[in-house]
Amino acid sequence: MHQCETASIDCAIVRAASGVESAVVRGRARWAGLLAGVSVLLLAASHASAETMSSALARAYASNPDINQQRASVRGIDENIPKAKSGWLPKVNASASVGAQYTYVRAAPTRIDESHPTRQRPMGQKYDDATPRSFGVTATETLFDGFKTLNSVRQAESQTFAARELMRNTEQTVLLNAATSYMNVLRDTAIVNLRRNNISVLEEQLRQTRDRFQVGEVTRTDVAQAEASLAQSRSDFFAAQASLQASVASYRQYVGVEPKKLAPAKPVEKLLPKALKDAVSTSQVDHPGIAAALHNVDVAAAAVKVAEAALYPNVSVTGALNRALDYQGLTGQKSFSASVTGQVNVPLYQGGAEYATIRQAKEQLGQARLAADLQRDQIRALVVTAWGQLETAKAQLISGQAAVTAAEIALNGVREEAKVGQRTTFDVLTAQQTLLNTRVVLVTAQRDRVVASYAVLSAMGHLSAGRLNLTAELYDPTIHLDQVKNKLIGVRTPDGR
Prior knowledge:
Blueprint: H1 3-6, H2 11-26, H3 31-38, H4 53-63, H5 65-78, H6 80-85, E1 91-98, E2 101-106, E3 125-130, E4 133-144, H7 148-214, H8 220-255, H9 276-286, H10 288-308, E5 314-325, E6 334-345, H11 353-419, H12 425-460, H13 477-484
Antiparallel strand pairs: 1-4, 2-3, 4-5, 5-6
């Protein structure tokens, strides 16, 4: 079975590789021309049914667990808003009680007057079996809480906005990882095929060297050199297979399916600005990491005001309705009460805890501001680094193409010179290995250019399903917030759970 079948790669690569193998057996004259086709595997035409970069990224966007768990986190944080708004709403409680009560009342005895027996009065006794029961409703409304509720709502809104930016940053990370794993599979598959084909060429080289040794044209040293090159080539092939397996596993992790017939991918340089300074400026405005850090500053600022509310008076009003039957354990006795009570609570001193909380919140606000500055610096460095990697990959691609052309010419010349005895077997093997190395470098440069372009787009904060125009339903976090922000009652989530 071909390696690209085990890795589920484009069948065009299989045919290119098989053609090289059969050509080596038929003769070395066509080896260089056929191997040249392998160097541009990443640029070859793909089948209509092949998985493209866009379709792979759409799969990752729709089904990657990391993205989905972050979306669930945002929905959970949305609920902080109605929780904060509950401070403006009344708290209503209903209560009821029922029980059995037995009452025995005995009057104090009267002393007997012996001179007047008629004045003797018996002891009074009273028995009562009652079922006391009561029910009532109490409602409490806070009229003023030192603006605690107002600032809690603002804090909850900022938390939601920060969570959305973190979700967008997770989306960028997953899409970049998916694009990287996609290109890694293509690169490693091409390298595996190059090294497999090199084994076939070296096997043919060894066979011919042994034949020439039998007729005395070369020495035993030439045979040993050919054997050593073949053994090293097989070792490199096994290492390349291991790298391919790791890339396939990474692809499965981020995209969610095994790679099958991956089509070549192009860089996204058309979505990038022309100059580095423009990329840096864009990142400072649009990157979700910076936006999340700024929202966290707002969260910390609101936390200071929430803590300061502990120093303000609290004003509330309470209304109560109560109905009691068999009141005080007396059968048939009833009572009804209704009350409205206003209450003002002025904090004077609570042991100093509230002051420590305020100071702590202010320090955390300062920390959040410093964290935002740190995030700006990190994003700026990330853009510069990714931009440099992209420029390097472009230059390596140009030099790699030139190196492959020169190595092909050199190998053909060395082979011709070896035929007339001007070159040794070692020279041929060296030239052959040089050509293989340059082709591996070229394939790697092609991969690096595509990955670096996605990395720059991510560093700018623009790597998203919308900007890539992926064929996937875009997730809108505002829908869930609109469904729950004013929801007053109910335990079911908007999706029915």
